[in-house]
Amino acid sequence: AICGHGCKYGECTGPNKCRCFPGFTGKTCNQDLNECGLKPRPCEHRCMNTHGSYKCYCLNGYMLMPDGTCASSRTCAMVNCQYGCQEVKGEVQCLCPSGGLQLGPNRRTCIDIDECSTGKAVCSHNRRCVNTFGSYYCKCQLGYELKYISDRYDCVDVNECVTNTHRCNLHAECLNTEGSFKCKCIQGYRGNGFDCT
User: Which CA distances in Å does 98 have to 57, 80, 132?
Assistant: First the structure.
């Protein structure tokens, strides 16, 4: 087959007869086909004609899907929350799995709330607060140890004089106190209990 004028974007299939490649039209396939003007329209929201093809665009709040349709980007699948989310009245809210976490500045990831520094933590008088990611726990104060007494765990005073964990001088006596100890130089010696002369 001979096409006297040629087939610019297509192939010659018979005497002066062209079969155009997709996206082109005209007797010699030299014109761009405006796909955006076709019925049915190839794009759900916005269409932009390009040379030999076209591009689809979506309105704000929507995301272009592989099939050319526009899906709401305000869905949990689109938002990419760290710990999941909920959809309320068309709005997507990321969630945090515990009360000890709060949404960070990007509204997608969760950051820790330090209950120990904010004063939200409640620990008994002989326990101290230790912050953890998403929570906290109460640990025995220094000078106390956790023991199981009368069907419950409690922080009880460590007797440093009995356990020999004091730093009293060789010439001093150890006196146990609540949560700590004192050192007193024995008779005939002077000092602070840690140094006796």
Answer: 39, 18, 12
Same fold for the domain at 1-33 and the one at 158-196? yes
**One-letter amino acid for residue 112 of the chain:** D
Residue-wise pLDDT for 76-92, tens only, equals 777 788 888 887 776 78
Percentage of the chain surpassing pLDDT 90?
A: 48
Instruction: Name the token pair of 54.
Output: 């076209």
Nearest to 46 by CA among 70, 29, 66, 71: 70
Sign of CA dihedral 94, 99, 100, 102: positive
Summarize the confidence of residues 19-42 as an average pLDDT: 92
Q: Where are the domains of the chain?
A: 1-33, 45-113, 127-157, 158-196
Cβ proximity of 57 and 64 under 8 Å:
yes
Residue corresponding to tokens 């997507």: 92
Q: Given the structure tokens 């726990």, which residue do they identify?
A: 137
**Alpha-carbon 192 to chain mean position:** 54
